[in-house]
Design brief:
single chain; 73 residues; mainly alpha; 3 helices; elongated; transmembrane; membrane; CbtB_put; CbtB-domain containing protein; transmembrane helix
Length: 73
């Protein structure tokens, strides 16, 4: 029984190296995006809405809320 290893041309992974400031900026942006997404999908409704009585955002993502397990009624 012989073993062989297959390598695809150009499959060598090149590591991405970020300095501390750039990594912190990416981390901040990712966390901010996640918090904003969580707010609009999971929290924005009724009394907690920062947009008052406007329900356009709630209705736009209504099915996504239920799919992700957030109650809204």
């Amino acid at each position: 029984m012989s073993t062989s290893t297959f390598h695809r041309a150009g499959s060598g992974a090149t590591p991405v190296i970020l300095d501390g400031a750039r990594a912190a900026l990416w981390l901040f942006g990712t966390v901010l995006f996640g918090v904003v997404l969580y707010y609009f999908v999971g929290i924005d409704q009724g009394a907690t809405s920062v947009f008052g009585n406007d329900t356009h955002i709630h209705e736009f993502i209504h099915d996504a809320r239920h799919f992700l397990g957030f109650p809204c009624h």
